[in-house]
Design a protein that fits this description.
heterotrimer; A mainly alpha (about 575); B mainly alpha (about 270); C alpha+beta (about 350); B: about 270 residues; mainly alpha; Cytochrome Bc1 Complex, Chain D, domain 2; two-stranded antiparallel sheet; 2 strands; C: about 350 residues; alpha+beta; Rieske Iron-sulfur Protein; about 10% strand; extended
Chain lengths: ~575, ~270, ~350
């Protein structure tokens, strides 16, 4: 604690002596800082941001994982562009890898093999790039789940949720365009699926595919076009959106979990300079290190075994990278014979149905903050993150969504599930079809009940403490178990959460109830009908009688403890 | 799948095979022991008065006995087949050798398909069996050694493998799913002769690749490629079972993200 | 943000900031809430209490940074000492492994060191910063409105409706030429016509994929599956585009096993049948032929086709049977196509039946 004594005076005080000290003894750092400040007035920025407070919780680091893996992707991707040729010009492979010697392939595939086998560290960079890409999308997904389940998307952060959602879509697009660049058999068949998917779209499908591929599939244009998207257009939009995302994070400041001393009007945590900077900076190197470790030990995307793209061969177990899996799974789960004719035109419901379902799912995810905001009508700012149990309906919806996504995801590996668990493909697919419908419902119900039960337990503990396991015989001969009371600090975590009531629909000025208001009322009672209110002060005082001081020892009021409510 | 793929990708294949081993394996092993003793005895008695034709006819007799004892119930006394098993007339030595030496025949309990298990017969007995079957009607013979060396054109082999084999067996020979619980087995570590015989005879649901479809030289190229895969581990490191993006994705979520979440917990925990 | 405070834990709960009341909606505004107990007392760390522990932590951080230096040097050394030797495939693996592990150590050393430093030695008690409503203060908002009003007044944007509306019209129309420019992403030809035909025509020989050697009817024995391309494909400059439509799977069944519909009686040759290999779902090669069950399976989305019933769909998301290529033999005994497919191959598309 010796280090903290002189900093307690606030920002202004230590700033002044430091600057006079700098004036006295102009070191190299000081003169460099002076040089820059006189040209950029950066001191203002440092003053504003340098001591910003960042709350500490493990789940608050997930977005950073995404940011850091993106930096790793940029670094390694730049290296790869120096060697990669985004061209489908046919060449004959004449490199190190024996089983492809003399085989026709595109310049793209050839240069990827060159990077892998002839450039020292080239394979490493490729593997780092690919592992980091998988991690990038995965960490975004986990980050979104954290935001969702803690309600951190509520006002004023709805827009940042939207931007984050756009980043997620962009990350998947980046992933898919990158995956297709080497022009190998696996990614080529992936493109073929995309081509078939686009062609199946009503009215515009044929033409979109034709324009995208620059003629008939596969054509000679697609790799170059995807390359432009992959290294120019998509990253530019991604970086811009990322910038806005982070600026809004600074403006809104980070949410925090409820805790003693924490309120909706403060941020409690460590300052950026130096503790958070050291932790976050160190964390960048750790994330980079973990990716590097995976890349040095584990093969990813061995295009040399896949071989060059050719429309005739295919490999068993042809799957997209994990983040496209849910879309592939949706295609797999469609039953036979979905489709019909509209006059002379073919309407492929086996394509349109999964596209619509996925589209609705994605839109629902993007719009969720606005839907919940509309239902509650809550216009206040929320900076205290919910514990998931304290918003049972939202948590249950989240669990249903996760289940839905997980079933689609599992469906994308139905063949591998079949071979590895000795099942039949047909059985796996039929089971998943049923699970896709029933799974989310079951998950919703279970999660909601579990949340409510946990809230009840919290309430019980807040009021009466937890069971100590110590049995005491009262003078009257009655045996009771002594309940250990919580400390005020521990109790505060359990009792401070936001509570909502179902909406009472009232007629408007014209004495009518609009359909929209009716819908809102229905949604509201769905959300908040089952609710457990936070403990009030009066209840607390009743529970403890007058003896609020006996917090640590547990009260001896047998009848209170024994009967409860 | 997730666990085994991530924990130890190198031994995964082996674990799976063990998982598939029939509980009858130990009985089969005892049987093998007994039959092997008999086989050695038979070997001694036949080699006592040796001339090639005599040995051959002795082999046929031996094979006939083994056939009657182990195969005739299903395939018929004269190889004519029954309701439960196909006729073996004209299947040739290659087919018998493939089925018997990989333990697929005699069949175990009925499943979606006959699975590989330790062979019940010695090499000598297997030879006797296929000599006997081949003596009844001509069919594809045992492949010549010149095609099994594994030192032909790997690039040509890989090209043919991708077109003709990869859709079932996976580009890296890791195997794959077929309909109704059937599967195409992994080809890693399979003997060259077995691969050749499988191509030539098309066991179970595998199509036949006769010598006009894939010439013996082309079959040798395919074998060369598979042997290349066996002998050259992936330059990128451990291969996670060669199952493609699914095993990569699972590994990333479990190991990659798992490690990093662990780090975040350490990073934000209070020091004591 | 301008007036944020940085206070020690001892200063307790932050002061409430007065803020314009916003509607809580259906949220319950509780008046009877328990008291926020304020910050708990601070527990000092071992490194704060014991100078030896502090020294040890300092040493550990330094060791981690040194390990990082070693890692980076090791990576450099590995780069030089374990080059990729042409022809030696194992050298790539070694290079990848050692270079990667060196860099890993270099990165993890810094990362773990910095975090350990922050956790054990940097000031670790929590600080507090106040939040302020995200919306600007009334004065700021008023000023912003004023700026817009001034802009409107000085330009006459709201007043001069003719100018405004014509400008909006001009702006809306400017991107249109840009959209038109994208037409030439693809050639002029009509895609629908291209999709309706393949290379196959009367007399085209069926040849081996990938060698291009013609196939005789007698080569195709019972239980065989041949992967087939049309003769002359390998010489085409648009080889991949043609192959993506023309790839065919050739099989032989017992003629009595085939259920042939009217009009297709002559399309097979003694039980030899040819079907498009391109899945009618989204276009993967349907190449998994089970010679015993006569089922074809697509490895991408598990559609299954029954070859004995003219490749009708028996499972999975595909909607249409695989198109059949009518075949016969020529005078030399080679298999040839009787014509092109009688319908477009591959995935459904809107104008397919037109």
């Amino acid at each position: 604690m010796t280090t903290t004594t002189d900093t307690s005076a606030g920002v202004g005080a230590p700033e002044a002596p430091r600057s006079t000290a700098l004036a006295k003894r102009p070191s190299v750092t000081a003169s460099a800082a002076n040089y820059i400040d006189e040209r950029t007035s950066i001191s203002g920025l440092v003053k504003e941001l340098g001591r910003k407070i960042f709350p500490d919780h493990w789940s608050f680091m997930l977005g950073e994982v995404a940011l850091y893996s993106f930096i790793v992707i940029l670094l390694t991707g730049t290296f790869l562009t120096f060697f990669f040729q985004a061209s489908q010009t046919p060449v004959v492979y004449d490199g190190t890898y024996l089983p492809l010697k003399g085989i026709n392939m595109s310049a793209a595939m050839n240069s990827t093999l060159h990077i892998s086998f002839d450039i020292r560290g080239g394979l490493l960079m490729r593997q780092v790039h690919h592992w980091a890409a998988l991690l990038f999308v995965a960490s975004i997904g986990l980050h979104m789940l954290r935001i969702f389940f803690t309600g951190a998307f509520r006002k004023p952060r709805e827009l940042n949720w939207m931007i984050g959602f756009i980043l997620f879509i962009l990350a998947m697009a980046e992933g898919f365009t990158g995956y297709s660049l080497p022009d190998d058999l696996l990614s080529g068949n992936g493109l073929r699926i995309i081509d078939g998917l686009i062609k199946g779209l009503p009215i515009v499908g044929t033409w979109i595919s034709y324009l995208l591929f620059g003629g008939e599939f596969p054509g000679t244009e697609i790799v170059g076009r995807l390359y432009t998207l992959h290294i120019l257009l998509l990253p530019a939009i991604l970086v811009a959106a990322l910038g806005v995302h982070l600026v809004l994070l600074v403006i809104n400041k980070h949410t925090q979990f409820a805790g003693p001393g924490k309120t909706n009007d403060n941020v409690v945590g460590v300052p950026i300079m130096p503790v958070f900077a050291a932790k976050a900076g160190g964390f960048f190197f750790i994330v980079f290190g973990v990716i590097m470790l995976m890349a040095s030990l584990f093969t990813i995307n061995p295009i040399w075994t896949y071989g060059p793209y050719d429309p005739s061969p295919i490999s068993a177990g042809t799957q997209p990278d994990w983040y496209i899996g849910f879309a592939d799974g949706a295609l797999r789960l469609v039953p036979s014979d979905w489709g019909f004719m509209i006059g002379d035109y073919t309407f492929s419901l086996n394509i349109v149905a999964p596209v619509l379902v996925l589209g609705l799912f994605i839109v629902a995810v993007a719009a969720y903050p606005f839907i919940e905001g509309w239902i509650t009508g809550d216009k206040r700012e929320h900076h205290i993150a919910d514990r998931p149990r304290n918003a049972p309906t939202r948590t249950a919806i989240g669990a249903a969504g996760v289940t839905f996504y997980a079933v689609l995801w599992a469906a994308a590996s139905s063949d591998l599930i079949a071979t590895h668990f000795l099942l039949s493909i047909e059985g796996v697919i039929r089971t998943l079809q049923i699970t896709l419908i029933l799974g989310p419902i079951v998950a919703y119900q279970i999660t909601k009940r579990v949340c409510l039960a946990l809230m009840k337990k919290d309430r019980e503990i807040a009021l009466h403490g937890f069971e100590s396991g110590r049995i005491v015989r009262l003078p009257g001969g009655e045996y009771i178990e002594v309940h250990e009371q919580l400390s005020d600090y521990e109790r505060w975590r359990l009792v401070s959460f936001q509570d909502y009531k179902p909406l009472m629909i009232r007629p408007n000025a014209q004495g009518r109830i609009s359909t929209l208001e009716r819908a809102r009322g229905a949604m509201s009672s769905w959300f908040f009908e089952d609710r457990i209110s936070p403990v009030t002060n009066t209840e607390l005082e009743q529970a403890h009688g007058a003896g609020h001081g006996a917090v640590e020892t547990g009260s001896a009021d047998g009848h209170e403890i024994g009967t409860g409510h | 799948m997730a666990k085994s793929a991530s924990q130890d990708p190198l031994t995964k294949g082996r674990v799976r095979k063990q998982g598939r081993r029939s509980p009858l394996a130990s009985i089969a092993l005892i049987l093998i022991g007994l039959v092997a003793t008999g086989g050695v005895y038979a070997l001694f008695t036949t080699s006592a008065n040796a001339s090639t034709t005599a040995a051959s006819s002795a082999l046929t007799t031996e094979g006939s006995k083994l056939f009657q004892a182990n195969c005739a119930t299903c395939h018929g006394m004269n190889l004519e087949g029954t309701k439960v098993a196909p006729s073996l007339i004209g299947v040739g030595a290659a087919s018998v050798d493939f089925q018997v030496s990989t333990g697929r025949m005699p069949a175990a309990a009925s499943g979606p398909q006959e699975e590989q298990k330790p062979s019940q017969f010695t090499a000598q007995q297997t030879q006797a069996l296929y000599t006997f079957v081949a003596s009844k009607a001509p069919g594809p013979g045992i492949p010549s050694k010149e095609y099994l060396g594994g030192n032909d054109n790997a690039a040509q082999g890989a090209l043919l493998f991708r077109t003709n084999c990869a859709m079932c067996h996976n580009v890296a020979g890791a195997g794959g799913a077929l309909t109704e619980g059937k599967f195409a087995p992994a080809l890693t570590g399979v003997k060259a002769k077995t691969i050749y015989e499988a191509m030539e005879t098309g066991p179970q649901n595998m199509p036949v690749f006769n010598d006009k479809n894939l010439t013996p030289m082309q079959k040798a190229d395919v074998i060369t490629y598979l042997k290349y895969l066996d002998n050259n581990p992936s330059p990128g490191g451990l291969d996670l079972g060669n199952l493609g993006p699914v095993s990569e994705g699972l590994f990333l979520w479990i190991f990659g993200l798992g490690t990093i979440v662990g780090v975040t917990i350490w990073l934000t925990a209070k020091a004591n | 943000m301008a007036q944020h405070g940085d206070s020690n834990t001892a200063s307790g709960t932050a002061v409430k900031v007065s803020r314009a009341p916003e509607s809580p909606g259906t949220g319950v505004v509780q008046s009877d809430i328990p008291q926020n107990p304020g910050f708990p007392p601070h527990n000092p760390r071992m490194t704060d209490l014991d100078p030896n522990k502090e020294k040890r932590a300092e040493r550990q951080v330094a060791i981690l940074f040194f390990l990082s230096i070693i890692g980076s040097i090791f990576a450099l050394a590995a780069y030089i000492a374990y080059p990729i030797i042409p022809g030696d495939f194992g050298s790539i693996r070694t290079n990848n492994l050692l270079l990667g592990l060196g860099i890993t150590l270099g990165l993890l050393g810094i990362g773990l060191g910095a975090v350990h430093w922050a956790k054990q030695l940097m000031r670790e008690d929590e600080s507090v910063e106040l939040r302020h409503g995200t919306r600007g203060t009334p004065e700021t908002r008023e000023k912003a409105v004023e700026v817009f009003e001034l802009g409107n007044a000085e330009s006459g944007f709201g007043r001069r409706t003719l100018i405004r509306n014509s400008m909006i019209g001009a702006l809306v129309l400017t991107p249109v030429p840009a959209i038109a420019l994208f037409r030439d992403l693809a050639p002029m030809a009509d895609p629908v016509k291209l999709l309706q035909h393949t290379m196959w025509k009367k007399g085209t020989r069926l040849t081996h994929d990938p060698t291009g050697i013609p196939i005789k009817a007698s080569d195709v024995t019972l239980g065989s599956a041949f992967h087939v391309i049309p003769e002359g494909l390998l010489q085409r400059t648009d080889m991949l585009e043609q192959k993506a439509k023309a790839a065919v799977l050739l099989m032989r069944l017992l003629p009595q096993d085939l259920h042939v519909t009217k009009g297709r009686e002559t399309w097979n040759y003694n039980g030899i049948i040819a079907y498009s290999k391109i899945c009618t779902h989204v276009g993967c090669p349907v190449a998994l032929y089970e010679q015993d069950t006569h089922h074809l399976l697509c490895p991408c989305h598990q559609s299954q086709f029954d070859i004995t019933h003219e490749a009708k769909v028996i499972f999975g998301p595909a909607r249409r049977p695989l198109p059949q290529l009518p075949i016969t033999v020529d005078s030399e005994g080679y298999l040839v196509a009787q014509s092109d497919f009688h319908e477009p191959v591959g995935p459904d598309f809107w104008e397919r039946e037109t």
